Amino acid sequence: MGLITQLLTLPLAPVRGAVWVMDQVVLTAEQQYYDPEPVLRQLAELEQELLDGRIAEEEFDRREDELLDELEWRQAYQRQMRGCS
Description:
Distance between the termini: 25 Å
Low-confidence stretches: none
Oligomer: single chain
Helix content: over 70%
Number of helices: 4
Number of strands: 0
Order of helices and strands: HHHH
């Protein structure tokens, strides 16, 4: 950018800064929402519940299927985002 362009667009600097901050907040929220780690922890906890006898095998199978489905779409999102970068 030239000096004249910078001077003419100077009043827009706060707006550009606010937009950048909002973009960073959205990016961070998406990363946390699509993070597969919490699902992996839940799977480990679920397996421990089964081993401890706190849940039946049918309940384990049902919940495991749900968690694996969720893990799959989170990982697919992560792969898609890496492909776009």
